[in-house]
């Protein structure tokens, strides 16, 4: 329990540093864009390749289709249940799609990947990326459709613009790592070290970026109204509990199960406010939900780690 709190304290310390650097002007919009691109285009794919080659073998890859199927069905179920829950809780019109997406879709890369590596070790990266694949497919299809509905305009379930998002650097890095494992390829030492170094950038740079984001939004703007509170409870408690029940029912391996539940307990999807802005939906509500879940969900992670350690 103490280790979990100390790990999360370290994460918040780096986030606080990002906040302070943003307040000082060292991290501005241009620097933040550089951090984001470095993480997405270099850190995540390098981490995928490095960790797959280090921690995964062909026998473990045989479990991947089942894991993908479990996460896909779970997140699809979460989206459906959350949309119905929005009606039961009388979430106002124009926010129900965003509510469903913020509750159901986790922040798998910017927060989930570095935090799970800190909590469970580098081997967790492969499981996080498997979760991200299903999570991303559903977010960029059903999730985007639900967010678009909030604006009152008709939007297609599939579009070329959103489909391009699925071919992310992280997904391509995951595919490259899987191919290398299947072929039994051992990278030369200089390439192996390069991937490891770039993969190691994910955690500190992502947390600095989160600190910058919180400063940009402004802590004084973090208002926890009834609807935001419902999102937080759904994101931090309901969804992880549902995922816990699913992985126990299916009987996934212990290490994979713990990571999946931890990812399910991560803050809301960071792309949701961007999509809300593009489709003319409620950007302010989605931004508030994202910011509050970043703080609350991370504070609750040591409790989840303790519970997971007791169950497995």
Assign an overall shape: globular
Number of helices: 15
Helix content: over 70%
Rg (CA only): 19 Å
Element layout with pairings:
Layout: H1 2-24, H2 29-55, H3 58-61, H4 64-88, H5 96-104, H6 108-120, H7 124-150, H8 160-164, H9 169-183, H10 189-199, H11 202-217, H12 226-250, H13 254-264, H14 272-278, H15 283-311
Description:
There is one protein chain. This protein is mainly alpha-helical and 312 residues long. Helix content is 79%, strand content 0%. It contains 15 helices and no strands. Helix 4 runs parallel beside helix 7, helix 6 crosses helix 11 (202-217) and helix 12 (226-250) packs parallel to helix 15. The protein starts with a helix and ends with a helix. The model has no long low-confidence stretch (mean pLDDT 85).
List its salient traits:
mainly alpha; 15 helices; 79% helix
Concise description?
By secondary structure, the protein is mainly alpha-helical. 79% of the residues lie in helices and 0% in strands. The relative contact order is 0.18.
């Amino acid at each position: 329990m103490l280790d979990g709190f100390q790990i999360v304290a370290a994460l918040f310390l780096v986030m606080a540093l990002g906040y302070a650097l943003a307040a000082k002007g060292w991290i501005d919009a241009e620097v933040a864009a550089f951090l984001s691109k470095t993480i997405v285009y270099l850190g995540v794919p390098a981490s995928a390749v490095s960790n797959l080659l280090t921690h995964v073998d062909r026998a473990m890859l045989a479990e991947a289709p089942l894991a993908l199927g479990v996460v896909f069905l779970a997140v699809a179920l979460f989206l459906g249940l959350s949309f119905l829950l929005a009606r039961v809780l009388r979430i106002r019109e124009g926010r129900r799609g965003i509510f469903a997406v913020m509750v159901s879709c986790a922040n798998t890369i910017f927060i989930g990947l570095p935090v799970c590596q800190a909590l469970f070790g580098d081997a967790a990266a492969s499981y996080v990326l498997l979760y991200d694949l299903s999570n991303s497919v559903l977010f960029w299809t059903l999730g985007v459709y639900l967010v678009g509905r909030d604006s009152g305009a008709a939007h297609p379930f599939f579009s070329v613009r959103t489909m391009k998002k699925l071919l992310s650097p992280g997904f391509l890095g995951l595919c490259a790592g899987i191919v290398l494992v299947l072929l039994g390829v051992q990278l030369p030492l200089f390439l192996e070290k390069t991937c490891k170094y770039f993969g190691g950038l994910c955690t500190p740079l992502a947390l600095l970026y989160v600190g910058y984001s919180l400063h940009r939004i402004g802590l004084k703007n973090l208002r926890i109204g009834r609807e935001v509170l419902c999102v937080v409870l759904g994101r931090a408690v309901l969804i992880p509990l549902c995922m816990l029940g699913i992985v126990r029912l299916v009987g996934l391996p212990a290490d994979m199960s713990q990571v999946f539940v931890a990812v399910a307990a991560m803050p809301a999807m960071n792309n949701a406010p961007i999509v809300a802005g593009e489709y003319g939906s409620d950007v302010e509500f989605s931004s508030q939900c994202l910011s509050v879940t970043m703080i609350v969900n991370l504070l609750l992670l040591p409790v989840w780690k303790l519970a997971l350690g007791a169950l497995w």
